[in-house]
Write a structure and sequence with these properties.
This protein is of the alpha+beta class. The chain has one domain: Muramoyl-pentapeptide Carboxypeptidase, domain 2, CATH 3.30.1380. The chain contains five helices and seven strands, in the order E-E-H-E-E-H-H-E-H-E-H-E. The strands form three sheets. A three-stranded antiparallel beta sheet has the order 5-6-7. The longest helix has 20 residues. The two termini are about 30 Å apart. About 30% of the residues are buried.
């Protein structure tokens, strides 16, 4: 699919009904990436945070699948996402790191900050550190886990 729009490199809106069913940048914010996490949660419901490339969506699916495991591990308590996708302008406006994984800048690069209400962030972070196969940021001292 990865048809491009102009020179922006954005993924074109799918015209094939089968492709439109798959999570893509044009999916509505109500789209459930996993049973408990919507596209809107990863973007904080802001158009300025919408993904523009399919690989970003694919990375988000992997992150959300792991978040479902986290949820299950901690009594099925809801995952509260505080930061997901941050395109360059958004990232700059909030003072994010220039090379932040929240930029979803390449295949398999992405991040999400989250917490579980009523569960110590250090406990969640420790569990993720043992079970997430990739690098983990350490935000528990600030009340969240950076996955």
């Amino acid at each position: 699919m990865d048809q491009k729009l102009g020179t922006s490199g954005a993924t074109a809106k799918p015209t094939d009904p089968a492709q439109a069913q798959k999570f893509n940048p044009w999916s509505p914010f109500s789209y459930k990436i996993t049973p408990h996490i919507t596209y809107g949660e990863l973007t904080l419901g802001e158009e300025s945070r919408r993904f523009i490339k399919q690989y970003q969506c694919d990375t988000a699916v992997e992150l959300c699948r792991f978040l479902e495991k986290v949820r299950s591990q901690f009594g099925n308590k809801p995952i509260i996402i505080t930061s997901g996708n941050r395109p360059p302008k958004v990232n700059q406006s909030i003072g994010g790191a220039k090379n932040s994984e929240h930029l979803y800048s390449g295949p398999d690069v992405g991040a999400v900050d989250f917490y579980i209400k009523g569960v110590d962030a250090h406990v969640v972070q420790d569990w993720c550190d043992k079970n997430w196969p990739y690098s983990l940021g350490y935000g528990a001292d600030r009340g969240f886990v950076h996955l």
